[in-house]
Amino acid sequence: MKKTSDLTKFHQTLTDALYQIEMEEEFPNHFYQALLSGENAIYQKNISEIKTFHEDWIGTIESFFPSLDKITKNAKSGLRYDQEIVAIEKAKKTNSESVRHLASHTHLIKEIRNGEVVPKKILITQAEVDLAIYENRFIMTLINRLFRFVMQRYEIVKNNVKSYERKHFNLKSEFTIRESEVELNIDLNIKDEIEFDIDGRSNYKLMNRINNLLKMVNGLRESNFMEELKNAKPIVPPIMKTSIILKNVDYNNCLNLWLYLDKYNTFNFDLDVKEQNLPFDKYYLRNVYQTALMSFSTVYANQEALADHYQYVDVEEYKRRAPKFVKKNLKDIINQPDPVVLEDTQINQYYLDQSVEMFKKNLEKHNDESSSYDVALRKALRDTIEITNKLYESYFEFRPESIDNDMFFSRLLKADTETEILKAKDKARVARIIRETKEVDYNNAIRLEKRMMKDIQDLDKKLAKELKGKAYDLAKKLTIEEKIKIERENLSINQGILEDYLKFTSEQKQILNDEQKAFNEKLKENAKKVKEEEKIIIETEKKKAKAMYLRDLKVLKTEQRIQKKKLADQIREQRATQKKKLADEKQKTKVVSAQRIAKAKEKIQTDYEKKVNSAKEKYKV
To answer: From CA 482, how far away is CA 484, in angstroms rounded?
Structure first.
């Protein structure tokens, strides 16, 4: 609260007024005696809370930016081969795949000329540069995740950058007045921002650093690399450790950054709290007692004044049941402030890598001790499942099947049977849930095994189909080679037949050209006749349109003359009416003016007579 001059003035005025009332009335003294005779507890404390966020993560992320920047500017790419069947005129380059495709699709062959195969269409393969390889999609997903990571921390620092000071006042009093037991509780909290504190300035510096980091990440998100991969599918953990990711320094640094983001899922901060117990002087205590007087008199007097009205208010009746006794209450547990959890780490790359490493070591250990790999794998899987089972037994307090000494001595003690039944039912319910969960996992394992068997079966079918296709392609190839051999043997005969066919084709083309010329001449003559007929029709329509225009124009002129005549008559009537109104107004004005002049003359005459009479009286003429 920055401005306090008006508050101090108001408080002083209120105190003086209350002091005057206390001197005149008896009830305040009676109330103070009752209040001070009871049990009173007054509490006043000044608490300042300052949050200081850790910023070591910013430097760690900034150290990985050179690798990210280098990858986005010089990204690795792959080749994507697109196959298409095009006309032979559009084919620029062919390969062995084109020959194999043509051998298996002979309907695409146009002719065989001079021992050479001339196709109509052919399969071509075009190589396109593809940036959407797995490694680049990994970088794209990492940049988007890094943006969310930094943005979440920026919002938290932005919302908690200010430090506050809190003033807490509490008055609890129990006393008896006029045979009434009173419990009075006044609680007041005032929260003010702390200005110009060192830690607050450090939080502002941290927010500026995060803002600069956010701008750097936004620069990566707006790069050409991200624009070209905007339609690419993001990756899903676990990360595939390809040779590029493992051997390339920049890509490997990005993998380490991914693992760091997995580990750093919380946002740590330090909370500095300063508390001061503020004392009371006699004037302050007097004001506190006056506040209690005002609160009590306001409530009690108004309730007495409205007692008749409260008789008509609806009354709610209910029965109070016996309470249920509990042994624990979460509110009774006082915890230190925890860091803010920003990301779910239930399954992420870091913990997955750690678990895989432990499983790998366990498998290698059993492999050295076992007779075969299958036995070692079974033992390693049993150890992994046993860890989960021990977790269930420890958390839910399941007893092992063997009876130990503790169970024997527990039977000698008297136990609450109902409580034991409830505990047993809860444990049975938990055991059922665990069993159902394991059944789901077992069914998933069966489905995985079936899917693997189906994949093996599909691969067998694919292999058989490929072998059959190769045999079919080989037969086709041999057939084409045999045809080519026969064509070469009958080359002279085929050439003669082809020459006769070409001669016949040229004659047919000449006949078609002559017929086309005659047909075009007929079309020209018909077009000429049609144009002449159209010209005659157009002239006739023009004459008709002109006659219709003249007729409509004559009618329009007649209507205009009639309208002009009507308009002139209306104007004359309006002018006559206006002249008449003007004459009437002039006459009225003259009459009013004459009346005003007469009144003025009469007033002047009256005033003159009064002055003359007063002069006569004055000078006694």
So the answer is: 5
List residues bridging with 117 in a β-sheet: 112
Secondary-structure breakdown of the chain: helix, strand, coil percentages, each rounded to the nearest 5: 70, 15, 20
Distance CA 135, CA 251 (A): 8
Q: What is the distance between the alpha carbons of residues 431 and 394, in angstroms, rounded to a whole number?
A: 13
**Rg of the Cα atoms in the chain:** 53
Q: Which residues are bridge partners to 164 per DSSP?
A: 49, 193
For residue 229, how far is the Cα from the chain centroid? Answer: 20
Judge whether residue 408 has pLDDT over 50: no
Query: Could you tell me if 34 and 175 are in contact, meaning their C-beta atoms sit under 8 angstroms apart?
Result: yes
Beta strands in 326-475 (DSSP E): 340-341
How many Å apart are CA 220 and CA 64, to the nearest integer?
13
Please give the model's pTM, rounded to 2 decimal places: 0.44
Q: Which sign does the torsion angle of CA 148, 157, 67, 345 carry?
A: negative
pLDDT greater at residue 38 or residue 192: 38
3-state secondary structure of 110: strand
Task: Give tens-digit pLDDT for 335-345.
Answer: 445 555 555 54
Examine residue 237 and say whether the peptide bond preceding it is cis (omega within 30 degrees of 0). Answer: no
User: Residue 361: is its pLDDT beyond 70?
Assistant: yes
Containing 271, the helix (H) or strand (E) segment is strand 269-277
Q: 3-state class of 175 per DSSP?
A: strand
DSSP-assigned letters across all residues of 281-337: -HHHHHHHHHHHHHHHHHHHHHHHHTHHHHTTS------PPPPPP-S--GGG---PP
Q: How many CB atoms lie within 10 A of CB 529?
A: 10
What residue type is 151 in one-letter code? M
Q: Identify whether the C-beta of residue 46 lies closer than 8 Å to the C-beta of residue 276.
A: yes
Give dist(CA 342, CA 476) in Å, integer.
64
Cα–Cα distance, 399 to 418 (Å, whole number): 19
| Cβ atoms 175, 35 nearer than 8 A | yes
Token representation of residue 372? 């075969």
Task: Give pLDDT tens digits for 15-38.
Answer: 888 888 888 888 888 888 888 888
- Is residue 26 classed as helix, strand or coil in its secondary structure? coil
Length of the chain: 621
Distance CA 158, CA 140 (A): 27
Taking the CA atoms of residue 72, residue 73, residue 79 and residue 80 in that order, the dihedral angle to the nearest 10 degrees is 60
CA distances from 254 to 32, 72, 75, 278, 585 (A): 74, 12, 13, 55, 99
Question: For residue 238, is the peptide bond before it cis, meaning its omega torsion is within 30 degrees of 0?
Answer: yes
Helix (H, G, I), strand (E, B) or coil at 171: strand
The alpha-helical segments, DSSP class H, found in 81-174 are 96-104, 134-159
Residues 6+ apart with CB under 8 A from 188: 167, 168, 169, 170
- DSSP letter, residue 608: H
- Residue 243: helix, strand or coil by DSSP? helix
Contact call for residues 124 and 91 (beta carbons, < 8 A) = yes
